Amino acid sequence: MNNPTLNLQDKCAIITGTSTSTGIGAAIATAYAQAGAKVVINYEPSLPAPDELLAELKSTGGQVIAVAADISDVSQHHLLIDAALNTFGVLDILVNNAGVLGAGQLFSVTEENWDHTNSVNLKGPYFLTQAAAKIMVERKTKGRIINVTSTHVYRPSKLYTVYTISKAGLDMLSRSLALELGEFGITVNSIVPGAVTTAMSGYHAQPESLARNTNLVPLGRVGVPEDLVGAALFLASNASDYVTGADIKVNGGFGL
Q: Model-level pTM?
């Protein structure tokens, strides 16, 4: 085989959960565009379009479009698939990054909270993967499915039980679909962030939380979205051709 490279030239990626210009999705989108990929960034329809991120990527020559679609609504998934195929003609990479925190303990969680959290964090990725994989199989594309899970896959939290359950399900989704899609040359892997400061988890930046989490990280700091870029590039590129069903912890050693 050719020497492995992180070059994504001529590839097309859909990245969900890029409603802000400072989150994990935005960091991955920026890295993919810089590596030569054509990028479809997804944002929640109830939020403003990520115009700042679009402008930044286009100013450096990135081929990128933004598509509003509610990941929890399976009927809207075609908007992302159609945008990729109609604009760029191909679909090679899907990054299931969209997520909601779904805070709440057992006695305060409502059915609505449970349904919404699992619809965004688990049902949405499952059915969007189904739609993307169908295209990859039809076109004989050796595609990449990358799921962004959480350190809570291994470390439960009594404050975010529904979130941790949904992310544990997403981790098993990766491994199960790696088995199912392997025969088509499609890999399915997970990136497992530790404590990362984003708009969704801004509490990590609060002094008490920051101090507590920093003490749990051997590398001595809480993560930032850009810390996940290396793993995201690796899993999307031909450098990971023989990697599937894996979960890559990007957490600074959190909780060792």
A: 0.93
